[in-house]
Amino acid sequence: MKKVMRKAMRKHRIVVLFAALGIFIGLPVAAHHSGVTYFDVEAEIVQHDATVVEYVIVNPHGRLVYTFTDEAGNEQEWSGELASANNLRRRGLGGEVFKPGDKLVTVTGSPSRSGANFMRLTRVDFENGDVAQLTGANAGITRAGE
Known about the structure:
Helix content is 28%, strand content 34%. The protein is of the alpha+beta class. The protein has two domains: 2-33; 40-142, CATH 2.40.50. Strands 1-2-3-5-4 form a five-stranded mixed barrel. Strand 5 (118-126) and strand 6 form a beta hairpin. It starts with a helix and ends with a strand.
């Protein structure tokens, strides 16, 4: 009976050890995937009349690089973080959605906490009326007239 109890206790300790390791390893990953770590999700930037420079679908996050002219008349280059490559493709936001030179009516997102020209993109409105919703349950592309 004691031998059976020792085996059970040993298995219990191993399970507890692996559970603890899982929690400690998982915490940094959860922190990385928290938008509030890098972006001010309470604030929203809306930039007008932008032009796509580059659209890169890579892991861990896709990126849209674009330019626009600020209120002072200066051209600025910004970069917007997106979801993972797989997530973008599944939602119809593959490599053909944004092409260099595309005109964007508005680019919307949460600004970087660092103050860099960088944001977490949430929505892009195209000149032709298409809308790319980049976050949330309804993320995807809505074509004008659909």
